[in-house]
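can u do me a favor
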């Protein structure tokens, strides 16, 4: 099939997840953009751990551009339990997607790394040049090394074929359509779900259990802000080298601050207990957004408390369909 000159067919792997749904919503809010056709994939369209299924879905849609989000994803505690699966599954998915993209002539792929893949022993703030400078935190080495290899793929596809395959490096993401499973998910969806449940039984004295000391620090990015930045990277950013997508260093908060924000948004009146028998994970991974700021000095992030409130409201209003 001959495609009209100047049209982009953008295929989003992992289109049914937290970040994929946010991109879909931002596109709906923006209204249709001339020359762009979007396809959102879930694991039902293809198991990207399988090379033949991956090739088939790329052959079927023949995208010109790809936003590659699909991954085995989980919070600290799932990572600690399943390092081997995180390593193998993500290695297969990334190798298959990038190779299939190359084979059908995709001109640009934007993949997704994470600030939790950076070296554990490091100076702060962390920047884009430091990905390979030392071992990641022990808790998630499987995920971290698999993600780091995307950067190796991108450099090698550029060196050998001149492909402009790049990656973004978001900090901790949260928002509607997150995975609210308490055992497997990240801290904010976990706390939102736990607070919601505790609230149901607050009369019986049920407390909210926050895991760990509450002291670790994180930079959280709202999925809708990340989605807007993803669209900018797809349309405007021309480097093969990755770019950190993060709020500023001054917007880093403690896990206790995050728990307080959830408690406030859900108006939870019960006791909050810190279970220090549970792991704290990496103490901090403070990232610099100086590179992003050089490109987009005026980009405004949604205030943290507003984004938390919107996410809590989404969870309460969509309790029946939320992933949990
Ligand atoms: P998510 O909500 O868990 O969604 C994962 C997506 O990947 C889903 O669409 C899922 O499809 C798809 N997927 C998983 N395994 C697959 C497979 N074998 N074949 C095909 N599709 C598969 O994840 P997310 O939070 O949106 O994460 C998106 C990207 O951002 C990931 O690359 C992640 O590493 C990165 N990231 C996330 C965070 C965070 O805090 N969440 C932080 C930094 C970076 P189904 O819906 O069909 O299962
Ligand atoms: P990380 O940022 O990659 O470490 O992953 P998470 O999003 O899972 O955040 C982990 C941090 O939040 C650790 O300091 C945990 O001790 C703390 N935490 C507190 N309560 C929870 C919870 O209910 N779920 C999770 N996943 N982490 C929690």
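np, heres the sequence
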């Amino acid at each position: 099939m001959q495609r009209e000159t100047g049209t982009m067919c953008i295929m989003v792997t992992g289109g049914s997840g937290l970040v994929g749904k946010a991109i879909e919503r931002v596109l709906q809010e923006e209204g249709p953009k001339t020359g762009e056709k979007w396809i959102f994939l879930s694991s039902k369209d293809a198991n990207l751990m399988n090379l033949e299924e991956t090739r088939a879905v790329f052959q079927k849609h023949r995208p010109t551009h790809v936003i590659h989000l699909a991954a085995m994803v989980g919070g600290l505690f799932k990572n600690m339990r399943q390092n081997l699966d995180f390593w193998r599954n993500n290695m297969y998915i990334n190798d298959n997607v990038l190779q299939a993209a190359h084979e059908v002539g995709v001109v640009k792929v934007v993949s997704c790394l994470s600030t939790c893949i950076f070296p554990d022993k490091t100076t702060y703030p962390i920047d884009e040049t430091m990905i390979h400078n030392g071992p990641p935190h022990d808790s998630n080495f499987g995920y971290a090394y698999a993600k780091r290899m995307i950067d190796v793929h991108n450099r090698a596809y550029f060196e050998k074929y001149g492909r402009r395959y790049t990656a973004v490096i978001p900090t901790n993401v949260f928002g509607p359509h997150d995975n609210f499973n308490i055992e497997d998910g990240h801290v904010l969806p976990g706390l939102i779900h736990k607070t919601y449940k505790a609230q149901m039984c607050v009369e019986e004295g049920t407390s909210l259990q926050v895991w760990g000391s509450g002291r670790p620090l994180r930079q959280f990015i709202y999925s809708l802000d990340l989605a807007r930045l993803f669209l900018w990277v797809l349309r405007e950013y021309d480097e093969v080298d990755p770019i950190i997508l993060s709020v500023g260093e001054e917007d880093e908060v403690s896990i206790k601050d995050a728990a307080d924000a959830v408690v406030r948004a859900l108006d939870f009146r019960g006791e909050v207990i810190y279970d220090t028998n549970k792991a704290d994970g990496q103490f901090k991974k403070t990232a610099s957004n100086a590179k992003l700021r050089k490109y987009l000095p005026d980009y405004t992030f949604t205030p943290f408390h507003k984004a938390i409130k919107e996410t809590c409201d989404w969870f309460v209003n969509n309790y029946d369909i939320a992933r949990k």
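The radius of gyration is 20 Å. hope that helps!!
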